[in-house]
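Fill in residues.
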């Protein structure tokens, strides 16, 4: 519609020629809604309320007299209240394009004033303070212009004299030194870590190689064992066969040894024992015969000595009994010889050693003494002739008839037998006396 006007959200509609007014203004301000504008009678104008930007670049002198260049930017707009819109409309409605330049010059003046009261160090360290002081210093002017400053930012401080550079040199050197030190430390740490990484890598490679070698060795051992399994089994089987054959040979050798023991050695030992026993028996018989002869000879010699003594006494006293005894004693050697000859052909086995020999000899002597007693008895009969005096001085026939077997008129006999081993003896007597002894063994 031609008569209906609606301002944009960032615009203010100024209607002049109307009797209605906004405050002290001589025109009506419409924002946010539409209104009727009567043609010819009323006029509508638009004031932009959008954001604007003013760049500030100014050479300033600090409190120290050092010239620096300051570059800043200011962000502003026309205020939204009726007073600010009215003030801005009166000043910039037809010259809205010059608003940025005018605001920039105002801020530049306040900036020079603020920088002149500060040192370079303060300006560098306290930029926000500088910006706030510039805003505060220009607040009254901006309010009169109907402008609201949203932000003022100092972008750059240029040092045409090199003061800032020289001021920063020590710090820059220290920072550079610290940077170099830090870089060196970083390089050292990097080198150490690289070396550690290389060492770890080498260790890992070594462990890997060792494990790989171990696995390879195990694989080779397994393959070798698998390849040797057949020969080993065959060798074990052969070994078992050899062991069985060895055991069989040992059993056969043991059996042969037992057979040799039973068939050869024991019979040979028995035969050797038999021959040794026979030889010992023959040796003992020879020794016993020799001992018997020696004993007989000693007994005869003793009897002869006794007879000689008795003969000497009888000759001296005229004792006929002693003379007869002497004659008997003279014949004792013949008696002993006859008895010895009777024993020499006998097979005797003496079991009690020397005692047995003594017993045999004692038996022989006893027989002789028995004969002597008989002779004595014969000589003592009254009116009888001496029994030993046969006119030739010979022994009676009953004495001279003693045989090898020890038997005669009025003889005695003895025998003995044993099983395993044993002995026996016996004696007998008649008108004359005789004796015999013997022993047997089995």
């Amino acid at each position: 519609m031609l008569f209906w006007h609606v301002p944009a959200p960032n615009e203010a509609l100024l209607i002049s020629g109307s009797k209605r007014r906004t405050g002290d203004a001589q025109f009506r301000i419409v924002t946010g809604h539409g209104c009727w504008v009567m043609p010819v009678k009323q006029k509508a104008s638009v004031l932009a309320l959008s954001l604007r930007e003013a760049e500030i670049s100014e050479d300033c002198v600090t409190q120290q007299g050092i010239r620096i260049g300051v570059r800043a930017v200011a962000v502003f707009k026309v205020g939204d209240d009726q007073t600010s819109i009215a003030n801005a409309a009166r000043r910039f409605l037809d010259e809205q394009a010059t608003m940025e330049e005018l605001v920039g010059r105002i801020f530049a003046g306040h900036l020079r004033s603020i920088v002149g009261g500060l040192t370079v160090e303060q300006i560098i360290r306290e930029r926000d303070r500088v910006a706030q002081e510039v805003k505060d210093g220009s607040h009254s002017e901006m309010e009169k212009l109907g402008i609201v400053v949203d932000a003022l930012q100092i972008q750059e401080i240029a040092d045409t004299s090199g003061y800032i550079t020289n001021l920063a040199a020590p710090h820059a050197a220290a920072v550079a030194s610290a940077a170099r030190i830090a870089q060196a430390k970083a390089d050292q740490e990097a080198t150490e870590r690289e070396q550690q990484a290389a060492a770890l890598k080498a260790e890992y490679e070594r462990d890997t190689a060792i494990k790989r070698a171990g696995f390879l060795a195990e694989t080779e051992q397994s393959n070798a064992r698998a390849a040797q399994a057949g020969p080993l089994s065959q060798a074990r089987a052969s070994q078992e066969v050899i062991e069985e054959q060895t055991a069989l040979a040992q059993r056969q050798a043991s059996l042969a040894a037992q057979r040799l023991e039973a068939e050869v050695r024991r019979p040979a030992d028995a035969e050797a024992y038999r021959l040794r026993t026979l030889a010992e028996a023959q040796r003992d018989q020879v020794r016993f015969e020799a001992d018997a002869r020696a004993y007989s000879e000693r007994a005869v010699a003793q009897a002869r000595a006794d007879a000689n003594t008795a003969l000497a006494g009888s000759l001296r006293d005229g004792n006929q009994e002693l003379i007869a005894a002497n004659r008997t004693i003279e014949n004792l050697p013949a008696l002993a010889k006859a008895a010895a000859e009777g024993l020499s052909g006998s097979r005797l086995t003496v079991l009690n050693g020397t005692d047995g020999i003594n017993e045999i000899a004692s038996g022989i002597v006893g027989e002789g003494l028995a004969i002597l007693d008989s002779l004595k008895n014969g000589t003592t009969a009254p009116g009888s002739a001496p029994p030993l005096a046969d006119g030739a001085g010979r022994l009676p026939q009953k004495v001279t008839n003693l045989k090898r077997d020890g038997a005669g008129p009025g003889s005695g006999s003895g025998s003995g037998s044993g099983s395993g081993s044993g002995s026996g003896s016996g004696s007998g007597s008649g008108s004359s006396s005789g004796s015999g002894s013997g022993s047997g063994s089995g």
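Residues 1-50 form one domain.
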